Amino acid sequence: MPDTCSVYRCHRLGGQFDEHGEKIRCFSIPAVIDRGDESDKLITTERRDMWISAIKRVSSDDKLKKWEPSKHSKVCSVHFHKGKPAYYRAKNDPDWIPSLKMGHDSAKLSSASSKGAVDRYERVAQRKKRKVVTAAAAALLDLGKDLEPDVEPTEPPTKTQETQTDIEWETKINQLHEDNMNLRKTIEEKDRIIQSYQLTEDSLKADQDKLCFYTGLPSWLTFMAIFNLVSSHLPSSGKCKLSTFQQLLLFLMKVRLNLANKDLGYRFNIHPSTVSRIYNTVLDVMYARMKGLIHWPSRTSLRQSMPESFKEFYRKCCIIIDCTEIFIEQPSDLLARAQTWSQYKHHNTIKILIGITPQGTVSFLSKCWGGRVSDKEITETSGLLQHLQPGDLIIADRGFTINNYCRLALSEIAIPSFTRGKTQFTHKEVDWARQLSTVRIHVERVIGTFKQKYTILQGTLPLSMVGNVDELGTGEAQIDKLVTVCCALFNLCPAIVPMD
After folding, report:
1. What is the pTM for the complete model shown?
2. For residues 199 and 214, is the Cβ–Cβ distance under 8 A?
3. At 158, is the pLDDT very low, low, confident or very high (cuts 50, 70, 90)?
4. 3-state SS assignment for residue 76
5. 97 and 49 in contact (C-beta within 8 Å)?
6. CA-CA distance, 22 to 353, in Å (whole number)?
7. 74-110 CB burial, b ≥16 within 10 A, e <16
C-alpha cells in the first residue's frame, strides 16, 4: 500500500507525480538519535519537535492534546525546496524542516521568499567553501616555499632545446606504442594457448585431432549430428549444472578414455556424484535414440555393396559372428560369481555375441550373458537365427557348432575344419581354412578396434555399471546399453574393411 502524506490537507501518495512531473517520495518523521552523543540527541530532538510543529496536526482523541506521529507518518517531497529533507546537522538548510504548502496560513511562504531562503543558504555554503579552498592554497604555497631549493634563475630554453625535447618525447611515445602492441600480441597468443587447452565448442571444432582423441568420432559434423539427435532429450542448463553440449562431451570422454568420475569432476567443475548422474542420463538417452543404428541390412543392399574379397567365395555371406568378453568385478553372490566366471579369461566376465556385415559394420548385438555361457548357447538364444533367409551364409569360428539350426533355416555356416580324428589337414582343407581366415578376421578386427576406441570396455567394469538402470522404462541392463551405444558410435566411423 502506498504511503500517504501526513500534512494537513495534503492527500498525495508516494509514487504519484506532482504538477512538475516529478515523482513524489515520502519521508518518515525524523527520530531522536541517542547514541551517547549529547549534541546529536539535542539537535534531533529539536528537529523532530519542529517537524511536528510545522505539520500542526491535532490529536484525533483530544484536540487540545499535542499530535504524536506514528512510525507510519510520512511527509511527501512536495513540502521541501529541493524535494527531500536536509542532513540533520545542516541546521541552516531551508529543508531542515518541511516549509512548503503546509496547509495552514502561518506556514505558507511565497515563492519569492522560498527562493530567497534557498539562495541565502547556497551563498553561505559557497563562502565557506571558498574559505576552505583559499586556506588550503595558502598552505600549499607556504609548503612550496619551504621546500623550494635555493637555485639561481636559469635562462629560458632555446628553440633548439625545445625541438630536441619534442623529439625525445616523440621517441618515448613511439616506444610505448610499440611496447603496447607487443603486449597485445603476447596476450592474444596466451589466450589462444589457453583456448586450445579448454574443452569448448570452438576448440574442438578447430582441432580435428583433439576431437578424435576425446570423443573417438571422425569429424565435427559427426559430433554435431549426434548432438542434434540427443540434445532435445537431455536436461537443460536450468536443471543441470552443465549445458547439453558439455553433458554429451562428458559422456563421450568417459566411454572413450575411461576417465574416473573425480577426474571428469575436476575438468567440468562438478561433483563426482553429478558426473555419475549425468553419465547415466546421457547413456539412457543415447541408447534410446541410437540403438536403431545397429540393424540387419537387406540381402539386396548387402549384395550391391559386397567387398571384392568376398565376391569370389563368400558372395552369399550375410554376417560374420564372434563373441567377446568384458571384465567385471567379482560379484558377492555365489551364483552370480559362478555364472560370470570365464574359464578362457580366468576372470569374471560378461560375454556378448557380435555380428558384422561383410562391409564391416555391426549389424547384430546380443544381450550380455555371464562369461560361463558357451558360444553355441548364446547364439541359439540370441535371436540371430530368426534373421536368416534361405541361402544365407554365416561365417564363424570353431566354437559355433550350430549347423543343425542353420539347416532348419535353409542356411549355411562356414567354420574352420576340426582336427578331431585326423593327423593333419588335407591340402584342400588347408586352402579352405586360409581363405576363410582372410574374411573371418574382419570380425576380430572390428571387436578389437571398437574396444580400443572406447577404452571403457577394456578395463574392469564395476558392478554398478552392470546392473539395471531403468529410468526410461526400457528394462535393459546398463551394460547392454553401454555396449549398444559403443557399437552404434563405431558404425558412424569409417569402415575398416576395404571395398576393393
Report:
1. 0.60
2. yes
3. low
4. strand
5. no
6. 81
7. bbbbbbbbebebbebeeeebbbbbbbbbbeeeebebe
